[in-house]
Amino acid sequence: MAGHASEHIDSANAWGGKESPFRVSYGKLMMWFFLVSDALTFGGFLIAYGFSRHAHQGEWPIGEETFHSLPFLEGNYPLMYVAFMTFLLIISSVTMVLSVEAGHRMDKKGVIKWLVATVIGGIIFVGSQAWEWSHFIHGSKFGKVELADGSKAVVHAEQFGEIQNFTVQTAGHHYKAGQVLTNKDLDLLHEFQHAVEAGHVKDKMITLHDGSVAKIAKSNDVGMYLVVKEAGSKYELRQHIEGAEATKLYYDAAYSGEAKRIVYGANMERNEYGPRQYANYFFFITGFHGFHVSIGILINIIVLIGCIKGTYHARGHYEMVEKAGLYWHFVDLVWVFVFTFFYLV
Amino acid sequence: MERDDVIEYSLHTHHSEEEGKKIRKKIYFVTFLLSAITAVEVVIGILWGRSTVHGFWWETIKWFYIALTIVKAAYIVLVFMHLGDERKNLKLMILVPYLVFMLYLIFILLKEANAVGSVWATHV
């Protein structure tokens, strides 16, 4: 017994109770705990997404086919916009880590400068996401078409033939017979899509919202082709239908007078890109991520106020910036995975 | 304010001007690396999109994407979140349970999705 007491235990190995075994402060450790639990949440979402996607196989939309637009520009720019968003988030992660680095040197000005840059980057990112959502919800000019044989196809084209005007044939509550409606009177494309989706267009005659019936004058589309996403009795999965056949099939459906033959954009029930779950997961996962970014911006602003007021300087360390930074980097980390599994793979 | 029964770890993280320079250099290097990886991913996505590449080559590209994603994630966690500079037991405590659990879930996902997918394909 006495021998035990005199046995020397190295102080590096013995835990005296005072020191943390992880050698980090309580706040930082708790931030890590939170991030692990949050990472489990996002991991769970992405796993669920992967499950649905894997079970659906061929019908699942392809990233570069769904996301190929840029604001203010017509045409096909696959992945450019999300690449910009990814780059933006990486850069705002860098400004955050530079802010933390400045904090370690007690450089108050540096901390504030980089934190402001981080907040601005975050705001631009959330704005970009809002545009992305809006574009996703409104959809393309063509939408997804259900063909005569019951198969469903997405529509690609070089150009959508412009709608010139509607000539009213039968008067409704609002418009008189013989009146020629142009974009000055109403949003022709919006009215057209609305009517097509509701089955209010038959043989080039459109029933407008006020009940009047008008004749559609529309230019021809250029280079249209269809890609089958759900097989029917005639067309197979992934089959490409081109040329005059594609145009005929599309307009047979659009001008059939039947509702829901063409679906534009996306909501929780149907979307033009693929299976119902696709849009649901898109809204849920990118929405939850966007929510995290928004909260991150808020946290950064609060920490920024603390920096400007000198709270952390007086405390002798800028660990609050580091903790906010951990959260911010985590948001970037999640986006890296969302980018890969929603847009690339 | 200073208490002698509590160690303020937050005060131990300070570094000098010269060390700061070195750390910033590393940060800029990682910035370049992450941007370059993203650029490579996007260029591959545009040149060899999923609608044009099938079979073996698509599988290769897919796993290449996933590998690049993991590299990016590792740099973010280890450098930007400074987990690489923390003590080994903190690193292990955070990474090991998470990775074990995720790998398990991914295994279940692939197994189950294949089974469910084949049932949908044949019975619905």
UniProtKB/TrEMBL annotation, chain A:
Keywords carried by this UniProt record: Cell membrane, Membrane, Transmembrane, Transmembrane helix
Heme-copper oxidase subunit III family profile domain span: 1-345
Superkingdom per UniProt: Bacteria
Stated name of the protein: Cytochrome c oxidase subunit 3
The organism of origin for this protein: Taishania pollutisoli
UniProt record similarity statement: Belongs to the cytochrome c oxidase subunit 3 family.
Entries under InterPro entries matching the protein: Cyt_c/ubiquinol_Oxase_su3, Cyt_c_oxidase-like_su3, Cyt_c_oxidase_su3-like_sf, Cyt_c_oxidase_su3_a-hlx
SUPFAM superfamilies: Cytochrome c oxidase subunit III-like
Keyword hit for Transmembrane: yes
UniProtKB/TrEMBL annotation, chain B:
Keyword hit for Membrane: yes
Keyword Phosphoprotein recorded: no
Topology of the protein relative to the lipid bilayer: Multi-pass membrane protein
Protein localization: Cell membrane
Pfam hit, one: COX4_pro
Entries under InterPro entries matching the protein: Cyt_c_oxidase_su4_prok
GO CC annotations on file: plasma membrane
Protein's name in the database: Cytochrome C oxidase subunit IV family protein
Organism the protein comes from: Taishania pollutisoli
